[in-house]
Amino acid sequence: MPEITILDSVLPDDKDVRLLLLDGSIDAYNSEVLSDKLKELLEQGIYKIIVNCDGLKFISSSGMGVFMSIEDEILENRGGLKFVAVPQKILNVFQKVGLSDIFKIYPDEAGAITDFKKGL
Asked: Which domains does the chain have, with CATH numbers?
């Protein structure tokens, strides 16, 4: 069974933005780990989330569904879910299923942080 590790970091310049570093694979068996982490952030009132996918090897429809399931709550609270450092093969999947039309994707964290500071 694939494993996923999620490292959670507070940005030093902005306590309202949380950075999640994903490492491994997200599938139907472990997508609940991701879901629980995101729900925990929402319960803490954290609605600005940057997801660094540099270490992500695979994501199933279950994993993508986790992100989709929180999008409305994030937007209702004037937040955002932004993806950075998405490997090309994962980006191809995001594009095929339309996630790249819903979520903003950046080459690195700096662009996502800048947009949060601008209110985008």
From this structure: 4-111 (3.30.750.24)
Residue whose tokens read 């409305």: 72
| Residue type at position 18 | R
Rounded Cα gap, residues 92 and 39, in angstroms: 27
Q: What is the pTM of this model?
A: 0.95
| pLDDT average per 10 residues of sequence, the chain (120 residues) | 89 90 96 97 97 97 96 96 98 94 96 91
Our measurement of the distance from residue 2's CA atom to the centroid of its chain's CA atoms, rounded to an integer in Å, reads 19
Across-strand partners of 55? Answer: 23
User: With the C-alpha atoms ordered 89, 95, 99, 103, is the resulting torsion angle positive or negative?
Assistant: positive
What b/e readout covers 85-110, taking b as 16+ CB neighbours within 10 angstroms? bbeeebeebbeeeebbeebebbeebe
Q: How far, in Å, CA of 76 to CA of 100, rounded?
A: 20
Residue 44's contacts (CB-CB under 8 Å, 6 or more residues apart) are: none
